[in-house]
Specification:
alpha+beta; Phosphorylase Kinase, domain 1; Aminoglycoside 3'-phosphotransferase, Chain: A, domain 2; five-stranded antiparallel sheet; 11 helices; about 10% strand; Kinase-like_dom_sf; ACAD10-like; transferase
Length: about 350
């Protein structure tokens, strides 16, 4: 057992899988994925098959954060839905095995794009890939949560009210310095929450192209990944999360489309993406979209602050990169205020 999130006790994992996963046979090798800051994720390789392991980071964590049990539950529930997810194999909630809870799932054979510009793709495939991203998002929000056993996966009541309260609490718990724009954004959001319109759906919480896996030789999505922030809530939060990401600078850090000539790459405008989503869900349109966009900037600022605090505390999955994230908090807060107008 190790307290270092970058190491994995292969002897312990091997013994656990031999006892709990039918068909498993070692010997076992593992490589840590370099992307992702929250739950350390590893490729597990055996002579006959590969798997993926996601674990909760060791050490003292914020309450309700890094809930790998919830990730396992929601993906298990979606196994036979129109939302593609990897197959779930086994969940271990015994911290004594490797130092924290973990689960093992299918290793998908596909391709993943870190940026929405999708360098190397043709305009036709870029257009098709983002349309598929749009389709899967609409399917996600049309999942019958009662039928798949997820009606209790999140509290009832106004989603944005509870999310703003939750992330404000998380932000305050990891706050390292006063950010005036963040304080102003919190106040502005609290005073402008839209009335509850009755929409209560499954939401992913971090829906963006780098959390999707596509088939290797086509444009079909074969897996939606990283369900840590998923809950039952309001679907516009997911839709606005896509648009928020696109407002970031292009490149491996921002992973956005700010300043990019989208039409020259076959990429849709924000308005076209929103319109396609509304058409798929039979919606007339979305009022007050700026609020939902501002909410996402606020939540991302809170997440980044938590990652930064974990770096200072020595619990980050990628410490050097996590420390750099602290500088982004004021920028996201500023963008959030601008979105509110």
């Amino acid at each position: 057992m190790s307290d270092d999130p970058n190491t994995l006790d292969l002897v312990a994992v091997d013994a656990y899988l031999r006892a709990n996963l039918q068909g498993y046979a070692g010997p076992l090798e593992a490589t840590k994925f370099t992307v992702g800051q929250s739950n350390p994720t590893y490729e597990l390789r055996t002579p006959g098959k590969s798997y993926v392991l996601r674990r909760k980071p060791p050490g003292v964590l914020l309450k309700s954060a890094h809930a790998v049990d919830r990730e396992f539950r929601v993906q298990t529930a979606l196994a036979h839905s129109n939302v593609p997810v990897p197959r779930m194999y086994v969940l271990c909630e015994d911290d004594s095995i490797i130092g924290s809870a973990f689960y093992v799932m299918e290793r998908l054979d596909g391709r993943n794009f870190l940026e929405p510009t999708m360098k190397g793709e043709t305009n036709e495939t870029r257009c098709a890939l983002l349309d598929e991203m749009n389709r899967v998002l609409a399917e996600l929000h049309m999942v019958d949560i009662d039928a798949v056993g997820l009606s209790d996966y999140g509290p009832t009541g106004n989603y944005f009210e509870r999310q703003i309260a939750r992330w404000t609490k998380q932000y305050r718990a990891s706050e390292t310095e006063t950010v005036a724009d963040m304080d102003a954004l919190i106040g502005a959001l609290e005073s402008s929450i839209p009335a509850d319109d009755g929409q209560r759906t499954l939401v992913h919480g971090d829906y963006r192209i780098d959390n999707l896996m596509f088939e290797r030789d086509g444009t079909r999505c074969i897996g939606v990944l990283d369900w840590e922030l998923s809950t039952i809530g309001h679907p516009y939060a997911d839709l606005a999360a896509v648009i928020m990401q696109w407002q970031m600078p292009p490149g491996k850090e921002g992973r956005g489309l700010a300043g990019v000539d989208r039409s020259s790459l076959g990429l849709p405008s924000d308005q076209q993406f929103i319109a396609s989503y509304c058409q798929r869900r039979g919606l007339p349109g979305i009022d007050n979209f700026g609020f939902y966009l501002a909410f996402n900037f606020f939540r991302m600022a809170g997440i980044l602050q938590g990652v930064y605090k974990r770096a200072l505390d020595g619990n980050a999955s990628d410490p050097a990169r996590a420390r750099a994230f602290g500088a982004y908090v004021p920028m996201f807060a500023k963008h959030g205020l601008a979105a509110l107008g």
